[in-house]
Amino acid sequence: MKKKSIFLIAATATLYFNNAYAQETPQDSAKVSSIDQIVITGNSNPKKKIESSTAISTFSSKEIQKQNPISAAALLQRVPGFAVETSGGEVGNNLFARGIPSAGAYEFVQVQEDGLPVFEDGALQFANADNFFRVDNSVNRMEALRGGSGSIFATNSPGGLINFITREGTNDFRGTAKLETSTYGLMRTDVNVGGALVQDKLFFNVGGFYRTDDGIRKTGFKANNGGQIRMNLKYVFDKGYVKVYYKKLDDRNTFFLPIPLIQNGNKLKGFPGFDPNYGTYSYRAISQLNIPQAGGGFFNRNLEDGIHPKVDVLGAVFKYDLGNNFTVLNKTRYTNINMNYTGIFPAGGPQMAADFAKSNGITGNNYQYSLVGSGGVVDPQYVQKLGFWAIDKQMNNFVNDLQFNYKFDKGNVTAGFYKSNWKSHQYWNWSNILTTASDRPELLNLVDTSLSPSDVGYSKTYNGVTNMTFLQRDTQTQGSLNDLYVNLDYNITNALSVNGGLRYSHDYYKGNFANTTSANLNNSGLTTDGTHGFNTTTADDNMSVLGNKYTYWNYNVDKVSFTLAANYKINRENAVYARFSNGFRSPNEEAYYNYFSNPNPDKPLKSVTTNQLEVGYKYYSRTFDIAVIPFYSTLKNLSFTDVFSDGKSENTFANTKNYGVEVEGFARLFNNILEVTFNGTIQSPKYKNLEAGSVLEGNVVRRMPKFFFNISPAVNITKSWRAYVSMNYYGKRFQDELNKQTLPSFTEFGAGMSYQLGRIRFAVDGTNIFNTIGITEGDPRAGSPNGDGIIMARPIMGAAARASITLDF
Question: Which of 59, 454, 541, 657 could form a disulfide with 142 if both were Cys (CB 3.0 to 4.6 A apart)?
């Protein structure tokens, strides 16, 4: 792989030195001028970017094509203020907005498609918003808003809004088709076509993708396999339009979790027998689980299914001019999701074989390990306990956003009612397995040689399973959101405008969960090997059994969010703005379960409240863009709801404060020969009044870098040839609130080139071309970390390259 990386760099350099410079704007230019860009996200009406008093980043379909992100999270790395962890694979990644910490997912931002949420809550347990969204050629552009008016135009989004706007048909029939392959077995095709069925009246667009690949980390099976299709019809009439659309997603993705590494201060290296760039515990040899249940029957699971959502979305948009400067807009959507989620979650780090045997009650050297597959006796130095976690989720969401807009000479006012009903029903069945602590792990059995095979407790495993179904959950959570909002834009002068917004949230949450008991299989009549009963193994000693009694709960939210801003347009190219906003985030799904399982009046559930102040300077021209946005934010009642490897969770509450500066820009230099895009964030997120003790006062918020940036220079070698290099820097962080375990800074480089031949585009894109070992998180399921030595952490993917051919027609 290193040879491939070197070849990619050498090819880029050769193209640079052996071709003439372009003397005009190339066909393949990566950036559309921002000076006339119109934005809609976080605004009551479309307006020019320079006139919007928001911190907003925009990416056109052409820019997305040039970046060719491997996932939605990879694209969002280009947004300042968003600290994004991409090490989970194509899905299941984490985004932290403006230093707001959480257990992960998209807890304080809302991910939208065409102005409505992908799912109302983007941080349900094991249901990160990016599980249900894929970037393909049917995306027309993306707008990412930080802070600001996010809380006015969406729920639970004080950190911001991410809006993917899909393509619609026009009078001209147009389409694009793309084929892509890679160094890791990728075969992908994207197609999008759109046009008019009736000129000026009826338009259509259909697009989607299908993809299969082996994964950058070597799983031994197809790590990613599936696709999606989007389609819409739009009918335009004299006073408005109506649009209906449908999306089907059926995709399967492997979720990658922490692996063992050796840490010495800021230096990282691979654990013996484990490749940090390409290794994973999620491997074919341990992919099958088949265990009897204490309540009867068997539980079967296949790791190769990974994260497998089946998503159906049906929606409509209606806009009508009522006359007298009044307009009505109604957006509605129904989403149904069935997801099977299977992943390997480490239960701590590798252990010496003798230590693990001792912890399971075996004295001295009276232990023996053997391979489950062959039965051969082995003598491993280290062994690894892994969680085999299976989660099934059935989710649905109906949402309707009705708004009225009135335009007057000096501005406009928008008032609306937002209604959303959602439901999540989930079932968990978790077991622990024992494997070799290595790449391509193998299942192990462990027995006590001081006993005979018929003795009680002789075996500590059952076909490699150390804890059979040690945790079950059957829970339901429902939300009913009833929100009123109003937003006013007023132009005091041609240069000075003000904006104010208010949202009243009257939201209801309720749910239930089955109570559980413990049991074993000793009297089940089943055998472990055809001869011996389950009393000879300890693997079934504490099996979880769902009861027929349920605990019911409910929780209500009555909160007001508001924002106030002013924008001063100095001239056509310069503007300054200031904004104050107040928003909130309701307790998350795990917080409800945790609290109502163990109610504590001294620690009542509360919504997280935020206050944010930001000021900004924007300069947009045909050749240079810059936005500099200092910000300050405070949070109260921030809840950390970590789920540990033993299935227990905790609620820890804190207050935080953060101040920083976001910078974003673009430059087209030397007569369009050189293009540079860049973004960066400097911040200082710290804890205040963390309940665990004053010793944490002033500590840096966990998993949050103080400094991170991305810069990507591109050279238009000729009118057709283009080459680029990207550099992504992620600063030092701490895994824990105590700031004991350091997550070292790292720099990831990418590079690529493209050639435009008429309507055909050839491209090669390389990621992490120097095979950097960069970790985005430690092991949040292991409790307090130990620091240096053998650690568990989740590194970014190793070096990889993709090649594509795109035809526009």
Answer: 59
